[in-house]
Amino acid sequence: MASNKNKKGLGKGIDAIFSEFEAIDENSETVVDLSLEDIRPNPYQPRKTFDEHALNELARSIQQNGVFQPIIVRESVNGFEIIAGERRFRASKIAEQKTIPAIIRPLSESGMMEIAVLENLQREDLTPLEEADAYQTLITKLNLTQEQVSQRLGKSRPYIANYLRLLNLPPATKKLVQNGDLSMGQARTLLSLKDKDQIDKLAKKAVSEDLTVRQLEQLATETKHDSKKRKKTVSTKSPYIRATEEKLVEKFDTPVSVRESRKGSGKLEIDFSNTKDLNRILDLLGIKLD
Protein backbone atom coordinates (compact mmCIF):
# COMPACT_ATOMS: atom_id res chain seq x y z
CA MET A 1 0.00 0.00 0.00
CA ALA A 2 1.17 3.53 -0.79
CA SER A 3 2.59 5.53 2.08
CA ASN A 4 0.93 8.67 3.46
CA LYS A 5 3.79 10.69 2.05
CA ASN A 6 2.95 9.54 -1.48
CA LYS A 7 -0.76 10.16 -0.98
CA LYS A 8 -0.29 13.75 0.12
CA GLY A 9 0.19 15.21 -3.36
CA LEU A 10 -3.07 13.71 -4.59
CA GLY A 11 -5.42 15.44 -2.16
CA LYS A 12 -8.12 13.97 0.07
CA GLY A 13 -9.57 11.77 -2.64
CA ILE A 14 -6.98 9.03 -2.43
CA ASP A 15 -7.23 8.79 1.37
CA ALA A 16 -10.96 8.16 1.02
CA ILE A 17 -10.37 5.47 -1.59
CA PHE A 18 -7.61 3.70 0.30
CA SER A 19 -9.72 3.75 3.45
CA GLU A 20 -11.65 0.86 1.88
CA PHE A 21 -8.44 -1.16 2.18
CA GLU A 22 -7.36 0.20 5.54
CA ALA A 23 -10.63 -0.84 7.15
CA ILE A 24 -9.66 -4.46 6.47
CA ASP A 25 -7.48 -6.42 8.86
CA GLU A 26 -4.74 -7.54 6.46
CA ASN A 27 -3.56 -10.19 8.93
CA SER A 28 -6.93 -11.92 8.69
CA GLU A 29 -6.85 -12.06 4.90
CA THR A 30 -6.10 -15.25 3.05
CA VAL A 31 -3.69 -15.47 0.14
CA VAL A 32 -4.98 -17.83 -2.54
CA ASP A 33 -3.42 -19.12 -5.75
CA LEU A 34 -5.54 -18.05 -8.72
CA SER A 35 -5.23 -19.29 -12.28
CA LEU A 36 -3.81 -16.61 -14.55
CA GLU A 37 -6.48 -17.57 -17.09
CA ASP A 38 -9.18 -16.42 -14.65
CA ILE A 39 -7.67 -12.96 -14.15
CA ARG A 40 -8.15 -9.87 -16.30
CA PRO A 41 -6.40 -6.48 -16.11
CA ASN A 42 -8.24 -3.57 -14.54
CA PRO A 43 -10.48 -2.20 -17.34
CA TYR A 44 -9.80 1.32 -16.05
CA GLN A 45 -6.02 0.96 -16.13
CA PRO A 46 -4.71 4.25 -17.64
CA ARG A 47 -1.27 2.83 -18.41
CA LYS A 48 -1.14 1.76 -22.07
CA THR A 49 2.53 0.82 -22.28
CA PHE A 50 4.70 -1.28 -19.97
CA ASP A 51 8.51 -1.38 -20.07
CA GLU A 52 9.21 -4.71 -21.79
CA HIS A 53 12.79 -4.88 -20.50
CA ALA A 54 11.62 -4.39 -16.90
CA LEU A 55 8.84 -6.95 -17.37
CA ASN A 56 11.30 -9.53 -18.72
CA GLU A 57 13.64 -8.94 -15.77
CA LEU A 58 10.73 -9.41 -13.36
CA ALA A 59 9.68 -12.54 -15.26
CA ARG A 60 13.16 -14.06 -14.81
CA SER A 61 13.01 -13.27 -11.08
CA ILE A 62 9.58 -14.90 -10.83
CA GLN A 63 10.86 -18.03 -12.60
CA GLN A 64 13.65 -18.36 -10.02
CA ASN A 65 11.99 -17.10 -6.84
CA GLY A 66 8.25 -16.91 -7.44
CA VAL A 67 5.98 -13.93 -6.68
CA PHE A 68 6.80 -12.53 -3.23
CA GLN A 69 3.94 -10.02 -2.96
CA PRO A 70 0.40 -11.16 -3.82
CA ILE A 71 -1.60 -9.15 -6.31
CA ILE A 72 -4.93 -7.72 -5.19
CA VAL A 73 -8.06 -8.56 -7.16
CA ARG A 74 -11.81 -8.28 -6.93
CA GLU A 75 -14.30 -10.91 -7.99
CA SER A 76 -16.19 -10.16 -11.22
CA VAL A 77 -18.78 -11.90 -13.37
CA ASN A 78 -16.14 -13.79 -15.33
CA GLY A 79 -13.36 -14.50 -12.87
CA PHE A 80 -11.31 -11.71 -11.28
CA GLU A 81 -10.14 -8.20 -12.13
CA ILE A 82 -6.82 -6.76 -10.95
CA ILE A 83 -6.96 -3.92 -8.44
CA ALA A 84 -3.20 -3.69 -7.91
CA GLY A 85 -0.27 -5.68 -9.29
CA GLU A 86 -0.70 -5.75 -13.07
CA ARG A 87 3.09 -5.78 -13.64
CA ARG A 88 3.42 -8.95 -11.56
CA PHE A 89 0.50 -10.45 -13.47
CA ARG A 90 2.04 -9.64 -16.88
CA ALA A 91 5.49 -10.84 -15.84
CA SER A 92 4.02 -14.11 -14.51
CA LYS A 93 2.44 -14.74 -17.90
CA ILE A 94 5.79 -14.12 -19.59
CA ALA A 95 7.38 -16.54 -17.11
CA GLU A 96 4.75 -19.10 -18.20
CA GLN A 97 3.38 -19.51 -14.70
CA LYS A 98 -0.03 -21.14 -14.32
CA THR A 99 -1.08 -19.44 -11.07
CA ILE A 100 -0.31 -16.34 -9.04
CA PRO A 101 -0.80 -15.58 -5.31
CA ALA A 102 -3.63 -13.13 -4.78
CA ILE A 103 -5.78 -11.46 -2.14
CA ILE A 104 -9.47 -11.04 -3.01
CA ARG A 105 -11.05 -7.82 -1.77
CA PRO A 106 -14.48 -6.31 -2.36
CA LEU A 107 -14.43 -2.97 -4.19
CA SER A 108 -17.09 -0.89 -5.90
CA GLU A 109 -16.95 -0.02 -9.60
CA SER A 110 -16.16 3.63 -8.89
CA GLY A 111 -13.58 2.62 -6.28
CA MET A 112 -11.99 0.23 -8.79
CA MET A 113 -11.68 3.05 -11.30
CA GLU A 114 -10.23 5.58 -8.89
CA ILE A 115 -7.73 3.11 -7.45
CA ALA A 116 -6.43 2.35 -10.96
CA VAL A 117 -6.08 6.03 -11.84
CA LEU A 118 -4.72 7.26 -8.51
CA GLU A 119 -2.27 4.39 -8.03
CA ASN A 120 -0.71 5.12 -11.41
CA LEU A 121 -0.70 8.88 -10.91
CA GLN A 122 1.22 8.36 -7.67
CA ARG A 123 4.05 6.70 -9.54
CA GLU A 124 4.42 9.74 -11.81
CA ASP A 125 5.72 7.71 -14.76
CA LEU A 126 2.65 7.86 -16.98
CA THR A 127 3.10 9.50 -20.37
CA PRO A 128 1.30 12.86 -20.75
CA LEU A 129 -1.37 11.19 -22.89
CA GLU A 130 -1.91 8.41 -20.38
CA GLU A 131 -2.29 11.02 -17.64
CA ALA A 132 -4.77 12.94 -19.81
CA ASP A 133 -6.75 9.73 -20.44
CA ALA A 134 -6.79 9.08 -16.69
CA TYR A 135 -8.37 12.47 -15.98
CA GLN A 136 -10.85 12.02 -18.82
CA THR A 137 -11.84 8.62 -17.41
CA LEU A 138 -12.69 10.17 -14.04
CA ILE A 139 -14.70 12.92 -15.74
CA THR A 140 -16.62 10.61 -18.06
CA LYS A 141 -17.17 7.53 -15.91
CA LEU A 142 -17.80 9.27 -12.58
CA ASN A 143 -19.58 12.28 -14.11
CA LEU A 144 -17.16 14.76 -12.53
CA THR A 145 -16.27 18.28 -13.65
CA GLN A 146 -12.67 19.41 -14.17
CA GLU A 147 -12.96 21.40 -10.94
CA GLN A 148 -14.09 18.31 -9.03
CA VAL A 149 -11.23 16.24 -10.45
CA SER A 150 -8.72 18.95 -9.52
CA GLN A 151 -10.05 19.06 -5.94
CA ARG A 152 -10.09 15.28 -5.69
CA LEU A 153 -6.47 14.96 -6.81
CA GLY A 154 -5.08 18.09 -5.16
CA LYS A 155 -4.06 19.63 -8.49
CA SER A 156 -5.06 22.97 -10.02
CA ARG A 157 -7.86 23.10 -12.58
CA PRO A 158 -5.57 24.68 -15.25
CA TYR A 159 -3.15 21.76 -14.71
CA ILE A 160 -5.96 19.26 -15.41
CA ALA A 161 -7.25 21.33 -18.35
CA ASN A 162 -3.82 21.50 -20.00
CA TYR A 163 -3.51 17.72 -19.96
CA LEU A 164 -7.04 17.20 -21.27
CA ARG A 165 -6.29 19.47 -24.23
CA LEU A 166 -3.70 16.92 -25.41
CA LEU A 167 -6.58 14.61 -26.31
CA ASN A 168 -7.46 17.06 -29.13
CA LEU A 169 -4.18 16.40 -30.95
CA PRO A 170 -4.40 14.48 -34.26
CA PRO A 171 -3.47 10.75 -34.08
CA ALA A 172 -0.02 11.05 -35.71
CA THR A 173 1.07 13.75 -33.25
CA LYS A 174 -0.44 11.82 -30.32
CA LYS A 175 1.77 8.89 -31.26
CA LEU A 176 4.87 11.11 -31.07
CA VAL A 177 3.82 12.27 -27.59
CA GLN A 178 3.05 8.73 -26.45
CA ASN A 179 6.46 7.50 -27.65
CA GLY A 180 8.23 10.33 -25.84
CA ASP A 181 9.49 11.94 -29.07
CA LEU A 182 7.44 15.10 -28.48
CA SER A 183 7.37 16.79 -25.08
CA MET A 184 4.36 18.10 -23.18
CA GLY A 185 5.53 21.68 -23.80
CA GLN A 186 5.92 21.11 -27.53
CA ALA A 187 2.50 19.45 -27.76
CA ARG A 188 0.84 22.36 -25.95
CA THR A 189 2.48 24.79 -28.36
CA LEU A 190 1.08 22.90 -31.35
CA LEU A 191 -2.43 23.10 -29.92
CA SER A 192 -2.42 26.81 -30.77
CA LEU A 193 -2.90 25.72 -34.40
CA LYS A 194 -6.37 24.79 -35.63
CA ASP A 195 -5.37 22.89 -38.79
CA LYS A 196 -4.56 19.26 -37.90
CA ASP A 197 -2.38 18.82 -40.99
CA GLN A 198 -0.28 21.78 -39.89
CA ILE A 199 0.00 20.30 -36.40
CA ASP A 200 1.25 16.97 -37.77
CA LYS A 201 3.69 18.72 -40.10
CA LEU A 202 5.23 20.89 -37.37
CA ALA A 203 5.29 17.95 -34.95
CA LYS A 204 7.38 15.92 -37.41
CA LYS A 205 9.63 18.92 -38.00
CA ALA A 206 10.10 19.45 -34.25
CA VAL A 207 11.22 15.84 -33.83
CA SER A 208 13.43 15.61 -36.93
CA GLU A 209 15.18 18.92 -36.22
CA ASP A 210 15.17 18.62 -32.41
CA LEU A 211 13.47 22.01 -32.02
CA THR A 212 13.11 23.68 -28.63
CA VAL A 213 9.71 24.82 -27.39
CA ARG A 214 10.64 28.42 -28.11
CA GLN A 215 11.68 27.60 -31.68
CA LEU A 216 8.45 25.68 -32.18
CA GLU A 217 6.42 28.59 -30.80
CA GLN A 218 8.03 30.86 -33.40
CA LEU A 219 7.23 28.41 -36.21
CA ALA A 220 3.65 28.02 -35.01
CA THR A 221 3.22 31.80 -34.96
CA GLU A 222 4.63 32.08 -38.49
CA THR A 223 2.38 29.26 -39.69
CA LYS A 224 -0.74 30.95 -38.29
CA HIS A 225 0.30 34.23 -39.92
CA ASP A 226 0.92 32.51 -43.28
CA SER A 227 -2.44 30.73 -43.04
CA LYS A 228 -4.26 34.02 -42.59
CA LYS A 229 -2.43 35.48 -45.59
CA ARG A 230 -3.24 32.43 -47.70
CA LYS A 231 -6.93 32.55 -46.78
CA LYS A 232 -7.07 36.19 -47.79
CA THR A 233 -5.24 35.45 -51.06
CA VAL A 234 -7.33 32.38 -51.91
CA SER A 235 -10.55 34.39 -51.68
CA THR A 236 -9.38 36.57 -54.62
CA LYS A 237 -8.00 33.71 -56.76
CA SER A 238 -9.76 32.43 -59.85
CA PRO A 239 -11.16 28.87 -59.92
CA TYR A 240 -8.39 27.94 -62.38
CA ILE A 241 -5.61 29.09 -60.02
CA ARG A 242 -7.20 27.33 -57.02
CA ALA A 243 -7.55 24.09 -59.04
CA THR A 244 -3.91 24.41 -60.10
CA GLU A 245 -2.80 24.78 -56.47
CA GLU A 246 -4.78 21.71 -55.47
CA LYS A 247 -3.10 19.62 -58.16
CA LEU A 248 0.36 20.85 -57.15
CA VAL A 249 -0.30 20.17 -53.46
CA GLU A 250 -1.38 16.64 -54.40
CA LYS A 251 1.78 16.09 -56.45
CA PHE A 252 4.33 17.55 -54.02
CA ASP A 253 2.55 16.68 -50.75
CA THR A 254 3.37 20.11 -49.31
CA PRO A 255 1.68 23.57 -49.28
CA VAL A 256 1.88 25.34 -52.66
CA SER A 257 0.86 28.89 -53.51
CA VAL A 258 0.22 30.29 -57.01
CA ARG A 259 -0.04 34.07 -57.27
CA GLU A 260 -1.19 35.78 -60.46
CA SER A 261 -0.62 39.44 -61.22
CA ARG A 262 -2.90 41.65 -63.28
CA LYS A 263 -0.30 41.68 -66.08
CA GLY A 264 -0.57 37.91 -66.52
CA SER A 265 2.72 37.06 -64.81
CA GLY A 266 2.85 35.41 -61.41
CA LYS A 267 4.72 33.54 -58.74
CA LEU A 268 4.80 29.88 -57.74
CA GLU A 269 5.84 29.00 -54.16
CA ILE A 270 6.47 25.43 -52.99
CA ASP A 271 7.04 24.95 -49.25
CA PHE A 272 9.64 22.54 -47.86
CA SER A 273 10.48 21.77 -44.23
CA ASN A 274 14.17 20.83 -44.51
CA THR A 275 16.93 19.89 -46.98
CA LYS A 276 15.71 16.31 -47.25
CA ASP A 277 12.24 17.57 -48.12
CA LEU A 278 13.71 19.94 -50.72
CA ASN A 279 15.65 17.09 -52.36
CA ARG A 280 12.43 15.07 -52.50
CA ILE A 281 10.69 17.90 -54.36
CA LEU A 282 13.64 18.30 -56.73
CA ASP A 283 13.45 14.59 -57.54
CA LEU A 284 9.76 14.95 -58.37
CA LEU A 285 10.67 17.80 -60.70
CA GLY A 286 13.35 15.68 -62.31
CA ILE A 287 16.12 18.06 -61.24
CA LYS A 288 19.49 16.44 -60.48
CA LEU A 289 22.19 18.40 -58.68
CA ASP A 290 25.86 17.58 -59.31
Automatic annotation (TrEMBL):
SUPFAM superfamilies: KorB DNA-binding domain-like, ParB/Sulfiredoxin. It is found in: Cytoplasm, Nucleoid. Keywords: Chromosome partition, DNA-binding. It comes from the Bacteria. Pfam families: HTH_ParB, ParB_C, ParB_N. The keyword DNA-binding applies. Residues 141-165 form the HTH cro/C1-type domain. One of its GO terms (biological process) is positive regulation of sporulation resulting in formation of a cellular spore. GO terms for molecular function: DNA binding. GO terms for cellular component: chromosome; nucleoid. The keyword DNA-binding applies. PANTHER family: CHROMOSOME-PARTITIONING PROTEIN PARB-RELATED (PTHR33375). Belongs to the ParB family. NCBIfam families: parB_part. This is Chromosome partitioning protein ParB. It comes from Companilactobacillus tucceti DSM 20183.
